[in-house]
Known about the structure:
- This protein has a domain at 21-68.
- By secondary structure, the protein is mainly alpha-helical.
- The chain is built from 2 helices and no strands.
Amino acid sequence: MTSRSGVRRLFLILxxxxxxxxxxxxxxxxxxxxxxxxxxLTPMQSVVGGAMLGVPTTWAFARxxxxxxxxxxx
Length: 74
């Protein structure tokens, strides 16, 4: 398996977890922002934000995990 296809496969497996984690983070960040007068996001807005932010963060995490796997194989 090439490194690029390995990263792609890891990304597809990990994306639901990364998007979910980002949705929770976005929601809790909006609760903190409410202290300075900004609106609290609805759960659906948080899910959409998590889905968007989950792509780059999960891709970076998958690349990191793949590099650790390659290092372990050596």
